Amino acid sequence: MPPERRSIVRTGIGFDSHRFAPGVPLILGGVNIPSQNGLVGHSDADAVAHAVTDAILGGAGEGDIGTLFPNTDPSNRNRNSVEMLQVAVERVESKGFCVANVDIVVIAEQPAIGPHRAAMQSTLAHVLHVAADAVTVKGKTNEGMGWIGRGEGIACIAIAGLAERGSKS
Ligand code: MG
Fold it and tell me: How far is the CA of 53 from the centre of ligand 1 (A)?
């Protein structure tokens, strides 16, 4: 009897952080969150979308967000990060993988993530082509410690599970 072919399961991890600034939008996981402070970066500074993008690209062995969307490219300025995540999903899927699940931790003193969790999960699940319960967003404070504790910015960690896509032929 021939050896059973093993299905391929892979994981990837992503991390991102961005600095707060007054008077700019706060977009996390594709959701516009009412806040006095938003995040600044080359794109729209959506740290959640960036961490998820790196997690799925890493799992697929497809580099990282900086390689795919260099910040030296003017077309990436103020770019919608959910749109960048969409491109990463297409790349992962074209390599023969699908996203199985994504688990995310947002670390910030403010704002509270809980009230926006469902919207973020739903937005990300749609882009990732998974069911809503395959994306989890968890909010944590940093207990007042360090730069996160001083409210200077937000950090985000994401882990993604990828599975080999079933044959559609
Ligand atoms: Mg970023």
Answer: 10
Consecutive H or E run containing 151: none
Q: How close is the Cα of 131 to the center of ligand 1, in Å?
A: 25
By DSSP bridging, strand 9-22 and strand 153-164 are antiparallel
Contacts with 153 (C-beta within 8 Å, 6 or more apart), sequence order: 17, 18, 19, 20, 39, 108, 147
Q: What is the CA radius of gyration of the chain?
A: 17
- Give residue 164 CA to ligand 1 midpoint distance, Å: 27
- How far is Cα 136 from Cα 160, in angstroms, rounded to an integer? 11
Using DSSP's 3-state secondary structure scheme, residue 106 falls into strand
Q: What is the pLDDT of residue 5?
A: 60
Q: What is the mean pLDDT of each successive set of 10 residues along the chain, which is 169 residues long?
A: 73 98 96 94 94 98 92 83 96 96 97 96 98 97 98 98 73
Nearest in space to 65 (alpha carbons), one of 93, 32, 92: 92
Angle formed at CA 74 by CA 69 and CA 77, multiple of 5 degrees = 75
- In angstroms, how far is CA 117 from the centroid of its own chain? 13
Q: Residue 137, class by beta-carbon neighbours within 10 Å (0-12 exposed, 13-18 middle, 19+ buried)? A: buried
